[in-house]
Design a protein that fits this description.
The structure holds 2 protein chains of 2 kinds. Chain A is mainly α. Chain A has 19 helices and 4 strands. Chain A is globular. Chain B is mainly alpha-helical. The chains are: A mainly alpha, B mainly alpha.
């Protein structure tokens, strides 16, 4: 077995999960220890990934069913770091709801393991295995606050609809296997016959399944309910981490075996992208709950990331990856604010609860202001650059319609971000929230705000890192 | 030139704002905050005067250029000034301290944040006039929305939320198309550097669409009829200092953009669309002047008069003659001074009576004579009386227009008459007549800071009215060069 060291991160994380399970069973009141060890595991895995795999040439393992290249390593590091921060800032929230249990970090670790497998997959079977591993962990996470009706409802809804989409996805895989005789991406790319319509059907089914996972319109219906019902820390996890993995699979699946069929899938991606951007922007206007609102906003944002992929160029992929990275930072900041809206052990999540926030919490509200303007894509904040790279790659492919629709939907989207700002800054104040927050929460808010605000000073750094991604 | 004077101009207000941000929780004393802001903006003003002093009027090349790699292989941070932009920079740095002095009376809550917003706004406005790269320009152009949105929304009047949203969304909608155009230019030519683009030129087959995309942004910002409707709302609801910034400087960004980008980058498209601009300008001049006649709210009246004055500016720019463009720039500078002063004048009486309705006032000339005199100066300047800066601009624009298109010029001249009508009628109704409202007798005349700001604005208004030479000398060479390039590329087509 050559190159086994390249999957050390995955091996390490699976061994840790087993160890933590056993520890949780035999040691009483171990939730705090397990929480801390999990944090350490995520960090160590990220370091191993960084050291071992980031700078190597693309290598395949296990009969080419797993690929380790720059894209996979970069996305894994982002996944691990995002999961790390989620775990870091969610402890207070979990304690308030008395769900600070050993299962929570372990489930997060398992879903991260599933995502890492997805990210590295170069084979339909491996990809499906990773997908199911992460999904099963996510179903449980959604219902984690099981005493609350909404949380159980969210988990059930997610489970049923996700199972449906997995079914579609498997059907697509079987079609592709049937007409090419292989599940391996590299083999598929050499085997298929472009005149075969069944292949197109297979691609469509798989795209539907993937679109469901990243909640692109018209497969988004679960997202608002699940995001609203799940515990806020889990919602944070949902809005960022699974999307990174699914987007990587999108990239790998479309650009490795089926680049020649770009005429077939480009239209689908353009449609998904336009529908998500517009629908996400319009539907968010009527929302009253911040978590539902961010669900629609995330639908809209995934539309922009897909617009990058729809170009079918390397620059497009890079711009999508940049977009997701910046989106994750903005989301972290937004949810840090949401987790700070606590008074007498009750968390508030309606938009009206932000009323007059700027008087009692000037620093919190200025951070939220910066994050919201950045989400709306107003320069000179990071969100603008994310959109700028996307539209640059879109226009380079002469897809003007997509660019104009995308930019117009930013204007619509600006409306609901402005509405939150209006409520924070222009309306009368309510009671103030608690001010004694967890240090990590404050830190994550500060760091994400500063990154967003100061991005324009060093815009080249992220591009330098991402420009090493070379798929085509 | 080693000292990065333009970057200092851009950054200095932000540093002041940062300073205010960190000192705010400690110092309860509002005066300190104001002095910090005032000091910052005054330093900036003197720096810009120094810049004018160093400025070489004999060349049309960009001066004080700074060129740094910003996004590697994509965009450079490039700033520089020529004769066209330097006057706007000085206007900005001149108006900002006056705004800060004027906040005394009008802004009662959250003074610190207000000053921060104004200083950050100054950074963005100077950035717009300095930038020599399209993306950098867009960045500053759009970023200005954030502080202005907050200024209108937090410190504005009763319908502030509606106005703030309208302002933000209108402007953003116009601007996103410009972003598409900027990226397209990058794709077509491989650069967004304005100086390089001047040399390279843009293929004529793309120019019309690109011109329209830029136009959509500038037309909203100017504002031109029929997308001017955000302006009266924004002006009426904004606090005095906000209206001043909006009228004096923000509107000039679009006029500047027309000269720098529409004429400079898309000459053949400008030729094609000149009739469109003429039509819209004439409609703006006559139609909004008529609307202004009927206004009962003083701020709204001045807001509509701004639209009419900007109509002259766009008309002058697209005559594409030396006099026309010179007239437009002088008109913009003059309008910057005069409209700022008029809004301050309205602010003065509003602070005392809390009403902007013309009907509230009447006969206050005996109560507050100093105010009446200064208000008269600016009323006359607004209607373009010879001897005020307003006359120079309008006269040059109309001269150029007569050479180019007789009908347009006649119609525009008609607008001048209506302009005189509404301004004089406003003055008559507010200042003269019988003192009916007994409340008005309690009004106090201008205090020191008000008198100071208004006098500061009156001096250049009158000085440049009698002797516009310094302005014309500064802009002359750059405009001549611009027109030569323009004529060359139109002829070579």
């Amino acid at each position: 077995m050559n190159n086994i060291e390249l999957i050390f991160p995955e091996i390490f994380i699976s061994l840790s999960i087993m160890f933590l399970l056993i520890l949780g069973v035999f040691k009483k009141d171990s939730s705090k220890i397990i929480h801390n060890i999990s944090l350490l595991v995520l960090l160590i895995t990220a370091v191993i990934t960084f050291n071992e795999t980031l700078s190597i040439n693309p290598t395949t393992l296990f009969n080419e069913s797993i690929i380790i290249d720059y894209l996979s390593s970069f996305m894994k590091i982002i996944t691990l770091l995002a999961a790390f921060v989620v775990l870091l800032i969610s402890s207070n929230y979990l304690r308030t709801f008395k769900i600070f249990k050993i299962e929570y970090p372990i489930l997060i670790l398992s879903s991260v393991l599933g995502m890492m497998i997805m990210i590295s997959s170069n084979d339909l079977i491996v990809f499906y295995m990773g997908l199911e591993l992460q999904s099963l962990a996510l179903y449980v996470l959604a219902t984690f606050n099981r005493d609350q009706l909404k949380s159980s409802e969210a988990g059930l809804k997610y489970f049923v609809l996700s199972a449906l989409s997995s079914g579609l996805l498997l059907y697509g895989c079987s079609l592709i296997y049937g007409f090419t005789g292989s599940t391996n991406f590299n083999v598929i790319s050499t085997q298929f016959n472009t005149n075969e319509y069944a292949i197109t059907f297979g691609i469509v089914f798989i795209l539907v399944g993937l679109a469901f996972k990243i909640s692109a319109v018209p497969f988004h219906m679960w997202a608002p309910d699940v995001y609203e019902g799940s515990p806020t820390s889990v919602t944070l996890f949902f809005t960022m981490v699974p999307k990174i993995a699914a987007l990587t699979v999108f990239i790998r699946f479309l650009f490795v075996p089926f680049l020649n069929l770009i005429d077939q899938w480009q239209m689908i991606l353009v449609f998904l992208s336009i529908a998500s951007m517009l629908f996400g922007a319009i539907a968010a206007i009527g929302q009253k709950n911040l978590k539902r609102l961010i669900a629609y906003s995330s639908i809209s944002h995934i539309g922009y990331a897909l617009a990058g992929l729809a170009t079918g160029s390397n620059e497009g992929i890079q711009s999508s990856v940049i977009y997701m990275t910046i989106y994750i930072i903005m989301n972290l900041g937004f949810f840090s604010c949401l987790l700070m809206m606590k008074r007498n052990n009750i968390y508030y999540e309606q938009i009206d609860d932000l009323s007059g926030l700027s008087k009692n919490h000037p620093l919190l509200s200025i951070s939220l202001l910066i994050i919201l303007f950045s989400l709306a894509g107003i320069p000179p904040l990071a969100g603008f650059f994310a959109k700028f790279y996307i539209f640059k790659s879109v226009i380079e492919q002469s897809m003007y319609f997509l660019a104009i629709v995308g930019l117009l939907s930013t204007v619509v989207a600006a409306f609901y971000y402005l509405r939150i700002i209006k409520i924070m800054y222009f309306d009368e104040e309510k009671d103030s929230y608690d001010k004694d927050h967890n240090l990590w929460l404050k830190l994550s808010l500060t760091v994400s705000t500063i990154l967003i605000l100061m991005y324009f000073i060093f815009p080249s750094e992220l591009i330098d890192v991402v420009s090493k991604i070379n798929i085509i | 030139m080693n000292f990065p004077i333009l970057s200092s101009l851009i950054l200095l207000p932000s540093i002041g704002a940062l300073f205010l941000f960190f000192t705010k929780s400690k110092s309860e004393n509002k005066i300190t905050a104001k002095y910090v802001a005032l000091f910052t903006s005054l330093v900036n003003f003197f720096l810009s005067i120094y810049l004018w002093f160093l400025f070489d009027q004999t060349t049309s090349a960009f001066q004080f250029v700074e060129d740094r790699i910003w996004i590697k292989g994509l965009i450079n941070y490039k700033v520089g000034v020529d004769g066209i932009s330097i006057l706007f920079i000085i206007l900005t740095t001149f108006i900002t301290p006056l705004c800060i002095i004027s906040v005394n009376n009008s802004v009662t809550k959250r003074l610190n944040e207000f000053l921060i917003a104004i200083l950050i706004m100054e950074t963005f406005m100077i950035g717009v006039f300095c930038s020599l790269d399209l993306v950098v320009f867009y960045l500053f152009f759009e970023a200005g929305l954030i502080p202005m949105f907050l200024i209108i929304g937090i410190w504005g009047g009763a319908r502030r939320v509606y106005s703030a949203f309208k302002f933000f969304l209108f402007t953003l909608l116009g601007s996103v198309l410009m972003l598409v155009a900027i990226i397209s230019i990058y794709w077509i030519t491989g650069t967004t550097d304005v100086v390089q683009l001047y040399e390279l030129g843009i293929d004529t087959k793309y120019q019309n669409l690109l011109w329209l995309a830029f136009f959509s942004s500038f037309a909203v910002k100017t504002p031109m009829w029929p997308v001017h409707t955000w302006l009266p709302d924004a002006h009426v609801e904004a606090p005095t200092a906000g209206s001043v910034l909006l009228a004096a400087i923000l509107l000039k960004m679009a006029g500047y953009g027309f000269i720098r980008f529409s004429l400079g980058l898309f000459p053949s498209a400008s030729e094609v669309f000149t009739p469109l601009i003429y039509t819209l300008s004439v409609i703006a001049i006559i139609f909004t002047s008529l609307i202004a006649l009927m206004q009962e709210d003083m701020k709204k009246l001045i807001a509509y008069s701004s639209v009419a004055h900007m109509g002259f500016v766009t008309l002058g720019i697209f005559t594409i003659q030396q006099q026309g463009i010179e007239g437009s720039i002088i008109q913009m500078i003059s309008h910057g001074l005069v409209s700022a002063a008029l809004f301050l004048c309205v602010g003065v009486v509003y602070d005392r009576m809390h009403s902007r309705l013309i009907a509230t006032y009447g006969g206050i000339v005996t109560v507050i004579p100093k105010y009446a005199i200064l208000f008269m100066v600016f009323t006359l300047a607004a209607l373009g009386l010879p001897g005020t800066s307003g006359f120079v601009g309008e006269f040059l624009i109309l001269m150029a227009a007569f050479k180019d298109n007789f009908l347009v010029a006649v119609l525009a001249s008609l607008g001048v008459i209506i302009g005189a009508a509404y301004m004089l009628w406003l003055y008559k109704r507010v200042i003269f007549g019988k003192l009916i409202n007994s409340e008005l007798k309690k009004m106090i005349d201008l205090n020191k800071s008000e008198a100071f700001t208004l006098t500061c604005l009156a001096i250049p208004t009158l000085y440049f009215g009698f002797y516009p030479e310094p302005l014309i000398n500064t802009i002359e060479v750059s405009i001549r060069d611009l027109i030569d390039t323009y004529n060359f590329s139109v002829a070579s087509k």
